[in-house]
Amino acid sequence: MPSLHLAVAIDRPDTHDAAPYLESALLAEHGALDFVTLHDSFARPGPDALAVAARIAPRTARIGLVPTVTTTHTEPFHVQAAVATLDWVSHGRAGWALDVSATEAEARLFGRRRAAPREELWREAGDVAEAAALLWDSWEDDAEIRDVATGRFIDRDKLHYADFAGRTFSVRGPSIVPRPPQGHPVRVVDATAPQARETAARYADVALVRAASAERADAARAELRGLAARYGRDPHTLLVFAALDVDLGGGEHAAEPGHGGGPLPTAEGPAYRGGPVDLAELIADWHRAGAVDGFHLTPAEPRRDLERLVNGTVALLQHRGLFRTFYPGSTLREHLGLARPANRYAALTGESA
Fold it and tell me: Could you count the other beta carbons within 10 Å of the beta carbon of residue 194?
């Protein structure tokens, strides 16, 4: 049976102190979860998710860190450099949750353009993802030589121009940050909305889908992997996680009526309300059915539900041998079983040699 993957949101929208975020990340790391996410948006006040992740990175050792960084109203060159920097700071544990900003209120914050339809914004997000990958590859892995005797820091033959021209921007490069430890930090896309699916299929390493049943999750994964294959990808390199809101306030009591066989659909998406044991059963059942590669869980009450998730649900899955008890590697790509991408420019150089 393929490995089960687990991730959790550690959002605290009204909290500006770094300590609670660090506490949550360390607890998730104690449970050997693959990664934590920090949502961000121009539509609401709150701390910058990328900055919070950078603050957490030196105090954690293995947990993946995946902040949301919008591709709308931001400069692609600076976004990729910031994500690459997080990968260096965390020693290869960075991810990037791509999102778009579609409201006029968000557009007015910047004053540069009007809000665009979501279809256009997600096409632009795909361009940003492509440009980022080119810029991450613009330094070959051994471009830094640091030769004190000759005063040479970089082998200029191993720096490359991206020369990317998208629909709304162009980037030449090279990047100002050396190639990240993972080659490409892990890209995560919530593919629930139809407008986001092609971008997820083409560029995401992990796609999130909000489904209220294993059958719907399986269908969503099949659709995404089919799209990925049409874009020339190995579809199995796209991991698909079921995204669920979880309320474990019921302690060890059985799930609320309607939740025992699965989560209930709500206005915010599928929600599970019940106890940690029943949640473990749900996760195990969906995984055994081969419906998803993992789960991304958003606690209703950050501290309470994360503690019950790690000490209850995850501990039970570990006891049953369904989830790991330690990290076998050190990078987020290793946690997820994803290969480190080859540098496209180095490959071209090798072919021409």
Answer: 10
Contact indicator for 74, 112 with CB cutoff of 8 Å: no
Q: What are 92-150's pLDDT values in tens digits?
A: 999 999 999 999 999 999 988 889 999 999 999 999 999 999 999 999 999 988 777 77
Instruction: Please give the model's pTM, rounded to 2 decimal places.
Output: 0.94
Preceding omega of 174 cis (within 30 degrees of 0): yes
Give the span between the Cα atoms of 47 and 43, in whole angstroms: 12
Q: How far apart are CA 195 and CA 214, in angstroms?
A: 22
Buried-exposed string 328-348: b where 16+ CB fall within 10 A, e elsewhere: eeebbbbbbbbeeeebebbee
Cβ atoms within 10 Å, residue 288 = 12
Please choose, from the candidates 247, 268, 243, 267, the residue with its C-alpha nearest in 3D space to the C-alpha of residue 256.
Answer: 247
